[in-house]
Each structure stands twice: as C-alpha cells, then as structure tokens.
Design brief:
- The structure holds 2 protein chains of 2 kinds.
- By secondary structure, chain A is mostly helical.
- Chain A is about 40% helix and about 5% strand.
- Chain A contains 8 helices and 2 strands.
- In chain B, about 25% of the residues lie in helices and about 25% in strands.
- In chain B, a hairpin with a 2-residue loop joins strand 2 and strand 3.
- In chain B, helix 4 packs parallel to helix 11.
- The chains are: A mainly alpha, B alpha/beta.
- Chains A and B meet through helix 1 of A and helix 1 and strand 1 of B.
Chain lengths: ~190, ~550
C-alpha cells in the first residue's frame, strides 16, 4: 500500500508524457491537402526546370513566390501525360482558368519581412538550406496546419527538415557573424 | 502536471497562443500583394522632394527619396492618413449654411500655403464673390544661391529645411555662409562662421549690417524681418540673387477672374465677416490674436479646413476635415529658391477617405466657379505654352515638353514628374512695403525675464514614430516643448522632462520642459505648436512657471 501513491504518480506522468509527445501533435495539427498533386522531381528531371524558373524574382528583385497559373499554362495548355493528377489539374484549373489555392509551407508570420534575393544572391544560400529537399520530392507532403496559430508545421522544422523560426534565423546569422537589428525583419 | 511539463504541449500552447494573438481583430497586418515602386512628390513643404514609394499591392510601406534622401517628416508621411489625431468628419452642411448666410458681409480666404493651383481656385472664387484672397506675404521673394558668394543668414535655417535640398546642396560649395543666430543651430554648426547674437536682437543686427566691414562682400542676406528686403536692395542683390518667386503658367481666363493677392497684415481690422482658412499643408502660422483682430466684432464665421484639431480648429466655429498628402492629388507650391517656374504633382499613394472636404470645391460651389479639373487645365496650359522639360523620376529621363502630347505630359506628371523651365528669365523682385507690425506694449524684463527663440513652423501632423524621436533625442524640439538654460530652469523651479506654464503678455500655454545648456541664458527656445505660437512669437518676452 505504501507504493500506491508513487505508482499512481508515475502512471500519471507516463500518461501525460504519452499524451504530450504522441497525442498532442496529432491533435494540434489538422492535415490539409494541396489542390494539385505536384511533382518537383518530374519538373526538375524531365523538364529540366531549375528552382528559379518557376519561383522567380521580379524585375525589382522581389520574390514572386509560388507561380501563378499563367506560368503553368505556358506548358500545360493541354494534358502532358496521362496521369490522374495531370487530368485533374487541366480540368479543374487550366481549362476554367482558376488559380490553384496552394498552401505555402514556408509562409512566415505577418509581422516578418524576409528578402529571398538578399539570402540567395548576397548570402549565396542554396534553396535547400531552408526548404530541404522539397525541390527533389516526387509529391507534395501533406500541409499540416496548426489549429491555434494557423501556421504550417514545416516552419518549425521536423523529421530532419530545417526550421524557419526566428531562432533558426538568428542562429544562422550568428553562425555567419551577421548581427542585425529587430527592424531588419520586423517591419 | 509533472509529466505534461516534460512534453512540448504546454510550451507549444504558449507559443501558439502568442502567434494566434497576432491575428486578432484590430492588430495591424502588413498588406500582401505585388511589390512595386510608385513615384510622387512630397507635398509636406515647398521643397517638393521626389519620392519613391515601395508599395505592397496598393499600400505604401516605405517612402524614400529619389537621387537623395527625405527628411524624417517625409520618410514617415505614409503614416499620416492613419494618425489618431486625424480630423475625420465635420459639420459640412452647417458650415455651408453659415458661410452662405454671411458671405455678402465680407468673405476672405486665408491661404497658408500659397502658390498652388488650389490658390488660384481660391482667388477665382473670391474674385467672383467680391471677397479677399489673403496670404501671409503678398509678394514672396525667390533666392538664387547658385549666384551667391557670401550669404549672411539671420536665423534662417538655410541648411535645415529651407528651400530645395538638391539646389541648396549643389550651390553650397560655392558660397560662404555666415549665420547670425542666438543659438548654435544645425545651420550655424555647418556655416563657415557663426555670429552669436542676443536673443531677440535680429532686427537690430539686420539694421547694423550696412555699417559692417563685411557688408561689401555680401551677395545675399536672408532673414524674417521687414528690413531684409531693403538691405538686399542696398547691397545690390536684387536682380542677382533676389528675384520674384516664379509660378508656372495658368490658363489666361484664371488671371482675369482672380482676386488680387493681399497680405494678411494689410487687411483692415474688423473687416472680415467670413474667414475660410486652408491650413493643409500650412507652411506658416498666424497667431490667433492677429486673426481675431481682422474679424468683425459681431458674430464672425470662421471655417478652417484642416487635417487635425491642433491648429485653428481650436478657435474656429467650424472645423472641416480635408484630405492630405499622400491621399490627394495636389500640386506643390514653389520653394523659396524657385527663381524659375516649376510644376510638380503630388500623386496620391492611398485612396482619399470619405467625408473629407476640399476648400477649393467648397468655395467653387459657393461662387459657381468650376474647380473640378483645375490641375489638368493648368497642365494643359503649360503644355500648350511648349516651354521647359519634364523630368520623370521613374526612368530619370528629361523630355522636352514639345516632344510630348498633352496626355503624355499629364501622365508623366501623375507618375512622379517635375516640369521645369530652366531657360525662363527670372522675374524681377518687387519691393514690398514694410509689413505693419502690431505695436507691442512695453514689457518689463522683471516680469517676463526670458526672450523667446522660436523653432521653424511645422503645423502638420507628425507620425507617431517621430513623436518617439522627439521624446528620445534632442535632435528636434518637440512642438509642445520649450528648452531652457540650466540656470533659468533652476530659477523657474522646473526640471528636465517636467511640465510648466509658458507665460507671455498674450496668455499662457502648458508646455513640457527640456533643460539644455545650448540655449543661451535669458532665452527660452519654444516649439512650433500652434498653442505656443498663439501666445509666444519669436523675440517675445516670456516667463516659465512651474506647475
């Protein structure tokens, strides 16, 4: 009987640990699917596309982000291949000229300004350093959205992917001996 | 609980809640959209600096200069439309009825930023209504620093906001600057010579200039006093460095319709029954007691068109909200160094809010003078004259007006362009008769021991970011502040950062105090808030009372 208290306490701790580590991540994130089953690998290997061919910079150096439908329609005026994903893309988006509502994994909070061109051109960073092997993947991973904050799980980094949190930015800047002020990113 | 704290759950919940709170209603969210540059002209002062606005979608998020910098006011001008002290609505119908009912007894427009196309609309409307068009000065001068070799400035902030920065900077290596001023201002610090003079002795110093040894070398004297024009004439500056201020051509019908320009001081006392004041953007301020002196004694009507309540809205019966830079299409008045005609449009960067009223449209409606399309009419008149060049900021090209169609000229002006006529012959300066100054009653230094040194006027709204700059630095004296020498502060029993009452023979005003050893003993440097200017002009005697 003397051990009953510690056993209950230990059981409680284990339950809480299990819930916190295993249950909580499943609960906090809702999984959403991308509108189109897109393969970076196919575009890179078969079409020979490079990252900046689609994720381009505008003339003033600002980053255009995810390409608009016009960019896709340049090649996909009609179905290229016979996959279901290709047929759906043509039928649902290209033919009716409807922009796909892409879910952006790396979308930063509203109070942050991030310059892609500064990092890639001046800092010589490769896309993979922040975005991982996204450019070589055959399918888009599920978009896991935090139910409370609304942001993507991917900006936190997990399963070996690089993080895109403020701590990660600061750590990288410190490693590169670059100290900046708050207002450089928080406009 | 013990187990939970060893998991990510509570920490993520804290972080997520913080991130979630960033998206609450009312929290400002930066706009998303295509980033592009738009060009305009800053209309906060007659310098009219070229502005490159970085816009996200339709929202300007950063203003910078083109081939040069902007002053702190211009850099933060895109904050102004959202200023918490902004005047957003007013009794338009009541004001219209009150003005219409009394207009026949003597109506006048007081234009505190003359030289714009809107000024011509006021003049035409007053011409049609047999009213008066009033400005702080009847015939402003224009100064050519590029032709000057030795400049004596009596308190003029020549290197700190006076004139067009690009012209002043271009001319600066070629002239020697002597700054006569009570305080070592920023201009005094940058001058070749600073002559410290007693506070309030500017007029006496100016009168002594002809007797100075250096007078023969002077090519230009700058200052505020009425004697300055005469001194410039005596040293032969007229026609060399002093000219009449030039304006771009206007349609011929306007000149026929327009009322004459009258200096405010020349208006007979108690003669104005209805006074309409345009104080956006005001480049000067006339203290209220001087305005009151010109109003009829029996129930005058004063309507001010302002962007905030801090100016004449404190005294006027009606304060009507107006649109301001950068939310309205307007042109910029020529600067003090515009010896040749210039025409610049401040193209709006944000949408004009609803509920605002324009004085030009107000008097246009009252008088029946059409004012809806005046900027285009004036641009067409300039184009028709076929003189000068259009300098477009976006591509940094200069194109002769003759090579442009009227539509292309108008489009260029609207996309950030400046028309100048470099070959124009400068206008000859017209000697003003000395302004009548009110007779100051004898003041006792015993009762009012300090002499006021006033800061240059800036009546517009200031971004909250600049308010912070005022509070945390001594780079600029905040409009509601005074600065005292430590000895005078001790005598008055006030401390740095404390509150006090500034008292003059005209009244008193609550102020905040800065203690600064750079202020001469026996002087009080006063901010440019209209409340302070109402009771304390430059060189006025004053005292500071602890509260």
């Amino acid at each position: 009987m003397k051990l009953r208290g510690p056993i209950v306490f230990l059981a409680g701790v284990l339950v809480a640990l299990g819930a916190g580590w295993a249950g909580f991540p499943r609960l906090i994130y809702q999984t959403r699917r991308q509108p189109v089953d897109f393969s970076h690998q196919v575009h890179a290997e078969k079409a020979g596309a490079k990252c900046e061919d689609c994720h381009a910079y505008r003339a003033d150096g600002s980053f255009a982000g995810v390409p608009a439908l016009d960019k896709c329609s340049g090649c996909h005026t009609a179905a290229m291949g016979s996959t279901v994903a290709e047929k759906n893309f043509i039928d649902q988006y290209v033919t009716p000229q409807r922009e796909p509502e892409w879910l952006v994994y790396a979308r930063q909070p509203e109070n942050v300004y991030f310059s892609h061109i500064t990092h890639t051109k001046r800092g010589n960073l490769k896309c993979e350093q922040c975005h991982g092997n996204q450019g070589a993947s055959n399918s888009l991973p599920p978009y896991q959205q935090d139910r409370i904050s609304g942001y993507s799980r991917d900006i936190w980094g997990h399963a070996g992917r690089p993080a895109m949190t403020m701590d990660a930015c600061v750590a990288c800047h410190r490693q590169s001996h670059l100290e900046h002020s708050c207002l450089d990113c928080h406009k | 609980m013990a187990g939970a704290v060893l998991t990510p759950a509570p920490w993520r919940l804290i972080t997520d809640t913080a991130l979630w709170s960033e998206n609450w209603p009312g929290v400002p969210r930066p706009a998303r959209g295509e980033i592009r540059a738009r060009f305009t002209t800053c209309a906060l002062c007659p310098a009219g600096c070229a502005v490159r606005a970085r816009c996200v979608g339709e929202q300007p998020v950063l203003l910078t200069g083109v081939s040069g910098g902007l002053c702190p006011f211009g850099l933060s001008a895109h904050h102004l439309p959202y200023h918490p002290a902004r005047l957003r609505k007013g009794p338009v119908a009541e004001a219209t009825a009150a003005v219409a009912g009394k207009a026949g007894q003597g109506i006048a427009v007081l234009d505190l930023n003359p030289g714009r196309t809107a000024s011509w609309s006021y003049r035409r409307a007053m011409g049609a209504m047999k009213g008066a068009y009033l400005t702080p000065q009847a015939e402003p001068f224009a100064y050519d620093l590029s032709a000057a070799r030795t400049v004596l400035s009596i308190g003029t902030p020549l290197l700190d906001g006076w004139g067009t920065p690009s012209k002043v900077n271009a001319a600066r290596p070629n002239f020697r600057l002597i700054q006569a001023e009570a305080m070592e201002s920023r201009t005094a610090m940058l001058a070749e010579q600073w002559i410290p003079i007693a506070p309030g002795s500017e007029s006496a110093f100016a009168k002594s200039i002809p007797q100075l040894e250096a007078a023969r070398e002077l090519s230009l004297v700058l200052g505020e006093g009425p004697e300055i024009a005469e001194i410039n004439q005596r040293i032969g500056a007229f026609g060399k460095t002093v000219f009449g201020r030039s304006e771009a051509v206007v349609p011929e019908t306007w000149t026929r319709e327009a009322a004459a320009v009258t200096a405010f001081a020349d208006v007979p006392d108690h003669s104005i029954a209805v006074l309409l004041i345009d104080e956006t953007p005001a480049t000067s301020y006339i203290p209220w007691h001087r305005i009151e002196q010109k109003l009829v004694r029996d129930n005058p009507v004063v309507v001010t068109f302002a962007a905030h309540r801090g100016g004449y809205a404190r005294h006027a019966q009606f304060a009507l909200p107006t649109a301001m830079y950068p939310e309205v299409l307007d042109d910029v008045a020529p600067a003090a160094d515009a010896i040749r005609p210039v025409f610049r449009l401040a193209a709006p960067l944000v949408a004009t809010p609803t509920g605002v009223v324009s004085l030009a449209e107000f008097v246009g409606t009252l008088s029946g003078v059409p004012v809806a399309n005046v900027l285009r009419e004036r641009a067409d008149a300039i184009h028709h004259a076929g003189q000068g060049t259009l300098h477009t900021y976006a591509d940094r090209q200069r194109t002769a007006v003759k090579e442009l169609t009227a539509d292309a000229f108008w489009k260029g002006l609207n996309e950030g362009g400046e028309w100048t006529w470099e070959d124009a012959k400068p206008r000859a300066a017209v000697m003003n008769r000395a302004e009548v100054r009110p007779v100051e009653p004898v003041e006792s230094p015993a009762d009012l021991p300090l002499v006021a040194i006033s800061e240059p006027h800036y009546a517009g709204l200031v971004s909250p970011l600049l308010t912070k700059l005022y509070q945390e630095s001594n780079l600029l004296l905040a409009p509601n502040r005074i600065a005292l020498h430590p000895k005078d502060a001790r005598d008055a029993g006030v401390v740095d950062g404390g509150r006090a009452m500034l008292q003059t023979r005209l009244g008193k005003c609550a102020v905040e105090v800065t203690v600064d050893a750079a202020v001469p003993a026996g002087a009080v440097q006063v901010g440019s808030a209209p409340g302070i200017q109402d009771v304390c002009g430059h060189a006025a005697r004053a005292k500071v009372v602890s509260v």
